[in-house]
UniProtKB/TrEMBL annotation:
Keyword Oxidoreductase carried by entry: yes
Organism this protein belongs to: Thorsellia anophelis DSM 18579
Protein name stated in the entry: 3-dehydro-L-gulonate 2-dehydrogenase
Xref: InterPro entries: Mal/L-sulf/L-lact_DH-like_ah (IPR043144), Mal/L-sulf/L-lact_DH-like_NADP (IPR043143), Mal/L-sulfo/L-lacto_DH-like_sf (IPR036111), Malate/L-lactate_DH-like (IPR003767)
Lineage: Bacteria, Pseudomonadati, Pseudomonadota, Gammaproteobacteria, Enterobacterales
Keywords of this entry: Oxidoreductase
Length: 333
């Protein structure tokens, strides 16, 4: 795989966006966000998805110059209509708005309708955590996996995303499928077997073969029936809080993954605990967990703790490894 300099990656993104008449300042913000996701080690929901993003722009599903607007306000809760604009920019703007509300009320929530795929959901709660907040977020999707006990697609991957301030911040970004399609694609591109079973093959047997799952699309819900139930209730909450599209509406009415529903919650931790006590308690939790007796793998980490390692790696090697097939797609856009 070639190593692509970060500046070259950003320029490739900008070329594609400006070619499609996106406003220059917004195009720069969007390109920077895509680059940041990759630089922090998330290739599946950044680099690998950029060609898909552009294909949705070309189909008219994503309106590059659309501006989100607040359409309802209920104290600490606001509803925003994103008018089918880029999900990444919607997420960044609404994450900041949730924090602004939280500074006033202690907690702030923004429900977003008519948005689009925001790539790495962790981006928005990590933004909160880096500013001393706790963040919670979710988004729905088309039906992309079977409900527990079913065979055809009826539920979305509907990730639950959480982060909390710390040194470093802790970040958990969990698709309700055992493996997101982005991670599945990573394993297909690199021809690597999944570390645990990820779904069913064409004969209904559990498999770790990513190529087989890429064909059958019968992904396993995370935690079996638990992940299935979480996916369903998250879709209900997303639809009710945002006033937007549900998984059935996206699947049957729109027949595409655009116009999704999302929410972002920010909690101002400066109001919930004194700063020294907060720092001490977070450190104690971290140290207690990391003092575990190691299992056979010999590895133990806390979610989000490897981000700085990816940034350092990319600095040392002078750029980011990108699968040649994906890079050729990006520069052809």
């Amino acid at each position: 795989m070639p190593i692509i300099k970060i500046n070259d990656l950003k320029q490739a993104y900008l070329n594609a966006l400006l070619k499609r008449n996106m406003e220059e300042s917004a195009a720069n913000r969007l390109a920077d966000a895509f680059v940041e996701m990759a630089n922090e080690g998330i290739y599946s929901h950044g680099i690998n998805r950029f060609p898909v993003f552009i294909s949705q722009v070309d189909k008219g599903d994503i309106q590059l110059n659309a501006k989100p607007e607040c359409v309802n306000s209920f104290g600490a809760l606001e509803q925003w209509d994103c008018h089918f604009g880029p999900g990444v920019l919607n997420g960044l703007l609404c994450a900041q708005r949730a924090m602004d509300i939280a500074k006033q009320f202690g907690i702030g929530m923004v429900g977003m309708k008519n948005s689009n795929h925001w790539m790495r959901g962790g981006t928005y709660v990590l933004k909160m955590a880096r500013q001393g907040f706790a963040g919670i977020a979710s988004t729905n999707s088309m039906a992309v996996m079977p409900a527990w006990g079913g065979k055809d697609h009826r539920i979305g991957s509907n990730p639950l995303v959480m982060a909390i301030a710390g040194d470093p911040p802790v970040l958990v970004d969990c698709s309700m499928s055992q493996f997101s399609y982005g991670q599945l694609q990573n394993h297909v591109l690199n021809n690597k077997t999944l570390p645990v079973v990820g779904g069913y093959d064409s004969e209904g047997n559990l498999t770790q073969d990513p190529h087989e799952l890429w064909k059958t699309k019968r992904l396993l819900p995370m935690g079996f029936w638990k992940g299935s139930s979480m996916s369903i209730v998250l879709d209900m909450m997303l639809t009710a809080i945002s006033g937007g599209n549900s998984v059935p509406a996206l699947t049957e009415d729109r027949k595409g993954e655009f116009g999704v529903s999302q929410f972002l919650i920010a909690i101002d931790l400066s109001k919930t605990m004194e700063a020294t006590q907060f720092s001490s308690e977070m450190a104690r939790i971290r140290e207690y967990v990391l003092a575990s007796e190691l299992a056979e793998t010999g590895q133990l980490s806390i979610a989000g703790s490897n981000i700085d390692n990816y940034i350092k790696l990319h600095q040392e090697q002078g750029g980011i490894h990108i699968h040649d097939e994906i890079w050729q797609q990006i520069i052809s856009l």
